[in-house]
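Mods, move this if it's the wrong board.
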Amino acid sequence: MSNRGRPEAKLRDLLDQLPDGLAAPVFTHASWTAKRSDSYERLAFLGDSVLALAVTAHLYPRLEADRFGAGRLTKIRAQAVSGRSCRAVAERLGVPDLLHAAAPPGAASGVPSLISTERVLASVIEAVIGACYLAFGYERTEIAVVEAFAPEIEHALEHPVDFKSALQELLARRGALVSYAVVDEQGPPHDRTFSISATIEGVEISRGSGRSKKDAEQEAAQAALEELE
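Not the wrong board. Structure tokens:
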């Protein structure tokens, strides 16, 4: 069946055109190679930034300045590019099958556990984006990325998530509690950035930063959710 008309079609077209030197590491897990630099990790690091910029640039002109300040923009973007969103795009793009095909013979039995992990699928999508950026430049990659993430972007706009409440509900089912603490403050009083930790049962799970304590707590809660799910 043709991919035309699907939100991920352009990103899949770019992926199919990647030169072998970039396509190979995109689907190489660090445990499959003797050199960690041959895995998808560096490309994922690059792709994470490209993804954030593409979605931010798309959202910025759509949302009225009077109603959507930096804090609300940050929350919407965070939801649109979250690990859960990246996993959904990865599944639409066929990443699980591509990882199966790329696995070396001795690692094939471990692929099901890898593709069931949100972090792995999200990292591969970020690696795809990073590789496309290197091969085709920002403009073509941005267009493909925004289309691929369109359902997640629209869902974030229509159904914004309160990450703190979501984390609290998840932990309530497990009989656990989360606490937040300021671990760092930088900048003058009128332009301060806060760093906040999320701790569960005495163990720090994540950190978040923001221009307000509430924004930093939301970011820490989101990171904790991605770590726990």
